[in-house]
Design a protein that fits this description.
Keywords: Membrane, Transmembrane, Transmembrane helix
Strand content: 5-15%
Radius of gyration: 21 Å
Strand order of the largest sheet: 1-3-2
Organism: Virgibacillus oceani
Largest sheet: 3 strands, mixed
Structural class: mainly alpha
Helix content: over 70%
Protein name: Zinc metallopeptidase
InterPro entries: Zn_peptidase_2
Order of helices and strands: HHEEEHHHHH
Number of helices: 7
Length: 229
């Protein structure tokens, strides 16, 4: 009994530690490379605009947004939003993040399959992530396994969304590196350092996917065990 409880506690600690470690890695890497300017001295906004123009994408705007590392691409409004530090910054971190978000805009313009699939999953993934845990918990407590199964199915959709996000993000980062090099924003040894920023950011998505899969597997095993009783 104690062994089982100990194993469960270790599992919970790991679930909490992995995302925290990934976020810490991102923040530390960003902090380090936000102090190192690129040889081109272009701001994140200038980098984003140049890459968009070079790829013939003129209907996407580049805007400043509040918050730290709140950068994102809004496919509905066709806007690349960069946090103030990255919008005005001339650092490797600013250039890397700006190029990554533009990578999503390029994916959108090219109808990248995984991006389209992720967009299609948004409604059910959002619904599933909000209600699945409640249904699963209620199902096990009340002994209503069908209710728990519905929750597991909905959670599966949310987990699938996390998994589909991985190729979308990795592809955007690959596009970012290619664009930064081809446009001359970064040169020589800057490539290695800029890639560290993109790799650190990718860790957050990997961590989220690992945690989501682990939780889903745990509930599936609980459902199987309860069904056998």
């Amino acid at each position: 009994m104690l062994g089982g409880l100990g194993g469960y506690l270790i599992y919970i600690v790991l679930l909490m530690a992995i995302p925290i470690w990934a976020q810490s890695k991102v923040k530390n890497t960003y902090k380090k490379y936000s102090k190192k300017a690129t040889s081109s001295y272009m701001t994140g906004a200038e980098v984003a605009r140049k890459i968009l123009n070079d790829n013939g994408i003129f209907d996407v705007q580049v805007e400043e947004t509040r918050g730290m590392l709140s950068d994102h691409y809004d496919p509905r409004k066709k806007v690349v939003r960069l946090s103030s530090g990255n919008y005005h910054g001339q650092s490797m971190a600013s250039s890397a993040i700006a190029a990554h978000e533009v990578g999503h805009a390029i994916q959108d313009a090219e109808s990248y399959a995984f991006l389209r699939f992720r967009h299609a999953l948004v409604p059910i993934a959002s619904f599933g992530s909000n209600i699945s845990f409640i249904l699963i918990l209620a199902g096990f407590i009340l002994g209503m396994l069908n209710l728990a199964l519905i929750g597991i199915v909905l959670m599966s959709a949310a987990v699938l969304f996390q998994l589909v996000t991985l190729p979308v993000e990795f592809d955007a980062s690959n596009r970012a590196m290619a664009q930064l090099v081809s446009t001359g924003v970064i040169r020589n040894n800057e490539e290695r350092e800029t890639k560290k920023v993109l790799n650190a950011a990718a860790l957050t998505y990997v961590a989220a996917a690992l945690v989501a899969v682990a939780e889903l597997v745990r509930f599936i095993l609980m459902f199987v065990a309860a069904s056998d009783d």
